[in-house]
## 1
Amino acid sequence: MAPGRRGGAVGQVRPVNAGTMRQVNRQLVLAAIRRHGPISRAELGHLTGLSQPAITGIVRELIREGLVREIGVGQSSGGRPPILLVFNPTAQYVLAATLEGDSLRAGVADLSGQVVAEESLRVDTTRPSRAVQSLIRLLDDLIARIGGGRSRLAAIGIGVPGIAHAGAGTVSHAPSLGWWKEVPLRERLERYFKVPVVLENDVNLMTLGEYAQGAGAGVENLVLVHVGLGIGAGILIGGRLYRGARDAAGEVGYLPFGPWSAARRPGDYGLFEQHYSARGLALRMQAAAGGDLPGVDPDRAIALLCHYARMAIPWARALLDDAVRHWAYAVAALACILNPERVLLAGQIEQAGEEGLQRIRAHLAGLVPVPPEVRFASLGARAGLVGAVAIALAAVQDPPLADLPPLPGEGRLDRPSAADAELHG
């Protein structure tokens, strides 16, 4: 039995009923069309090993649901020209959203993962009920823009800061939102939209997004460290998210890096996050400037700190040196435990620029024997949204397309040349 799977004793064979087998066969046929379309029914039989009557029934069902379309005829090999089939990604859509601080970003994507509309707004997150209502309104606006109403909505993926409890569908320990106790976000959204809702930590989603389309593409063992209003990390091991026993893997903001105070309480920000997040650095800049810096926007704090350091202002240089060193400590801790191939730095830490990145690399080289490659992430604010689309699609594709084993006839499909494959009529 695979690790993490639930069930009976090892070696126990579960009975499979006709309904389950039909669902498995349907997944095989749909996967074959997605991977190899345009494709004929005969070719589907060769690929999947299913009988033509079974193929005919499943294809008829998929066409009726709009998931598959007939697009014309292929080249004849002597008999009746075959009708070709393609996957229709616009048959349904998924919604995706990410929430950080007072910023809410959402998008709608088709079943190929193509984002077709996006919106963002500022929201009041101090009261969870208000934040959820703002999220619902924004998602409703996107549904209205895409047309067809909720009947075409397949699933929703949501990224949240803090700990996303996948099993319970709740969010807790999200200091940037002020949500400490568990908030039943999934239950609220599923009750309203009547579709599956998947919750995930926002930095985990950024990691998935960079792995799919960004600076982590193809890197199976990947860590992303995000420095924003808070600090968190996303971890991929063997191309899969690692969440830990209680969904709290990557909560590096709680690392014991920084000045310790006996007055700390359990509900305070994590020590590392308190001192070295963009919010923490903004407060420390104001304190170090001695009243000469009345207000610092956390969103631009690191850029401003680097600017003052380049002007050789002593407190700014000392504070930036301290921040860079401790960011490197966090990367070193992750590298020693996980030994990733690559570490991506994302969020406001990118404001430190190439000079800051080189300094982190230099610190790291002196801290660990085998330092990973360190670079900045590339997708910016869209990374989380790309990841949220991915988890929503995974909820629709059961199992996800990427997890399906090779089809029985894959590699043996005798396809015509590109010239012969032109459609006719």
Note: The two ends are 51 Å apart (CA to CA).
## 2
Amino acid sequence: MQTSAQKSCLEFTGNPSEATHIKAFLKALPIDNKANLELIKLLAKHYKVPKADIFIKKGLTSKHKIVEIINPRTT
């Protein structure tokens, strides 16, 4: 996860539907959990799931995170 980017976006390693590594570029700074919330919003939009179905399992205060997405949909 990289903060202070000009535009928020996701960069996938390999096929996006099977990606195990995603690099996120976020406009929000890691202050008051804003970067984590922006990451959840981007992932929810990409995988077409509600934000409530995305959980940061590990790395809440780290650049490296493990995220769980319930029933991701990609088409």
Note: The CA atoms of residues 9 and 42 lie 7 Å apart.
## 3
Amino acid sequence: MRFFPQLHTGENRLSLAGGPRYDFKQIIGLLRAGQEFKSLLAQLVGSKGYHDRKFSEGPYPV
């Protein structure tokens, strides 16, 4: 049983402007053109690290 069966159809996904805004091909094109490749939301949120300090082995403790 699904709570909102009308939201779980391929037709609804296709009705969202034909698909995702950022797909692999789009990202590669933006990178080649030297343009910003992150979505506005990703730019606003930024990168959140897992740890509050750096480790000599890299970004994660080993």
Note: The two ends are 44 Å apart (CA to CA).
